[in-house]
Write a structure and sequence with these properties.
Layout: H1 2-11, E1 17-18, H2 20-29, E2 39-44, H3 45-54, E3 58-63, E4 70-77, E5 95-99, E6 105-111, E7 122-124, E8 130-132, H4 133-136, E9 140-144, E10 147-151, H5 155-163, E11 174-177, E12 182-185, H6 188-235, H7 261-269, H8 276-304, H9 307-315
Parallel strand pairs: 2-6
Antiparallel strand pairs: 1-2, 3-4, 4-5, 5-6, 7-8, 9-10, 11-12
């Protein structure tokens, strides 16, 4: 089918090349990937339009060189090729090369400059695969399954963009034998062991991330607690004691008796011996002597009320 496909395009003067999974299989060993079930090719928009106008519905009879193989192939072009956007996704394949004996086919998709004014030189298909002109041209001549074919110029960059670098190194269901350059299907035991190893590695990675997150959370909590302690220490008020030197200079200490106190005591001791008239006079004199003490108490009340204001001032 491949030989008939490339022979027909060469005889018709049309250019086509390998794409997608078919291009990836070519990169490994020039053959189809064992797990791939179709062949993908691409053409330019001008070639696609030419196919639709001149070769749609063409029946091509192929005979191998030794005459042992005879096949008839149909080139079927989608009438929706004029629509170059994805739409509902039902017409992303633009044409097919179909083996009429068994229904096997090759998918053909066209590349178009959908935005030549805004993005000149950018080609895309209906599946939104995009390529630059310099990625595609000039084409490289090669062999695929022993048949002459073409691949894009920057095939490596195209493959990495579509499949990532991992697809060029490892696979899941098969093992690459570099000595014979062939894919060897892995046994059920190998697949099971690899699956268990991947699950264990994934679990280990998950536990490591959880451990790192727990350590990070603990560090954040410790820092937050330390900040709270520092904040409380800064906001802590001193004990409510009256600061030194807050009393007026002319105020006497609270425990210091007025200078005339001994006289008062003496009067008290001799109180019983004093006559009533003397007692009255003495009381009036005692009231006069108590005035300084009362004034002291009043001053103390006034100044103690200002102490907390001074503390706030000194702390600010």
């Amino acid at each position: 089918m491949l030989r008939a496909y490339f022979t027909f395009f060469a005889e018709s003067g049309m250019e086509t090349w390998l794409a997608h999974g078919t291009l990836l299989g070519w990169w490994w060993n020039g053959k189809m990937l064992p797990w791939d079930w179709d062949i993908d090719t691409q053409v330019s928009e001008s070639t696609l339009n030419y196919m639709g106008k001149h070769h749609n519905g063409t029946m091509y009879n192929y005979v191998s060189k030794d005459g042992q193989t005879k096949r008839t192939y149909l080139l079927d072009v989608n009438p929706a090729i004029v629509e170059r956007v994805r739409g509902n996704g039902n017409n992303v394949i633009d044409a097919r090369w179909i083996d009429t004996s068994n229904g096997l086919y090759i998918d053909i998709t066209g590349l178009s400059e959908t935005h030549p004014d805004d993005r000149p030189g950018v080609w895309s298909c209906k599946n939104y695969h995009r390529y630059h002109t310099t990625d595609l041209y000039p084409m490289r001549d090669t062999l695929y399954e022993g048949v002459g074919a073409k691949v894009p110029y920057a095939y490596d960059r195209i493959l990495i963009q579509e499949y990532k670098e991992k697809a060029l190194i490892v696979t899941d269901s098969h093992r690459w034998n570099a000595d014979v350059k062939e894919w060897i299907k892995k046994s059920e035991e190998e697949l099971k062991a690899e699956k268990e190893a991947k699950a264990a590695a994934k679990q280990k990675e998950k536990e490591e991330k959880q451990k790192q997150q727990a350590e990070k959370n603990k560090q954040q909590q410790d820092e937050k607690a330390k900040q709270e302690q520092d904040k409380q220490a800064e906001n802590k008020q001193p004990e409510n004691t009256q600061p030194e030197n807050t009393q007026p200079e002319n105020m006497q200490p609270e425990n210091k008796q007025p200078e005339n106190k001994p006289e008062e005591v003496k009067v008290e001791e001799n109180k019983q011996e004093v006559k009533p008239e003397e007692t009255k006079q003495e009381g009036q004199q005692q009231q006069k002597r108590d005035l300084p003490v009362k004034r002291y108490v009043e001053l103390e009340k006034e100044t103690s009320g200002l102490a907390h204001l001074r503390r706030k001032r000194d702390l600010s």
